[in-house]
Design a protein that fits this description.
The longest helix has 23 residues. With 143 residues, the protein is an alpha+beta fold. The protein is built from 1 helix and 8 strands; from the N terminus they run E-E-E-E-H-E-E-E-E. A hairpin with a 2-residue loop joins strand 6 and strand 7. A 6-stranded antiparallel β-sheet has the order 1-2-6-7-8-5, with helices on one face. Strands 3-4 form a two-stranded antiparallel ribbon. It has a single domain, classed as Thiol Ester Dehydrase, Chain A (Roll), CATH 3.10.129. 16% of the residues lie in helices and 41% in strands.
Length: 143
């Protein structure tokens, strides 16, 4: 298995720049996945007034959940990465929007997995500061 730093994120996620809101998978266990992302003006869509917009932050959380599922499928189950869809955002709380150049560390906590439906909780931080939390439900497309 490759070290996390050697995994091109494009192997785990179908989104491509400038609509990719994930830079790297930093950690994966059964209990969590930790992902990093540094938004940048001119590099990413959904930037507004020097900050990643609320829509961009939500997309970031959704892509972090997808990276976790992609890693599990590709490196644990040895299956191709599948396309997924976000079905629901719940309990979204944003305390502030991340500024361009700030490195986000997002932790995804799986809560329930039934068939192709996954429920996770997401926490987005810059350093020790909690910027956003949400619960997301996603479905993976069956081939």
């Amino acid at each position: 298995m490759k070290p996390f730093s050697d995994i091109p994120i494009g192997e785990l996620l179908p989104q491509q720049p400038p609509f990719r809101f994930v830079d790297s998978l930093e950690e994966y266990t059964e209990e969590l996945a930790r992902i990093r992302f540094t938004p940048a003006e001119g590099k990413n869509l959904l930037m507004e007034d020097g900050c990643l917009s609320a829509a961009g932050l939500m997309e970031h959380m959704a892509q972090c959940s997808a990276v976790r599922i992609g890693y599990y499928n590709k490196f644990i189950l040895k299956l191709p990465v599948k396309i997924g869809y976000i079905g629901q955002f719940r309990k979204l709380r944003i305390t502030r929007l991340p500024k361009a150049g700030e490195t986000l560390e997002t932790t995804i906590y799986p809560r329930e997995e039934v068939y192709n439906i996954t429920m996770v909780d997401a926490e987005v931080r810059v350093g020790d500061e909690l910027l956003a939390t949400a619960s997301l439900k996603s479905a993976v497309k069956d081939d």
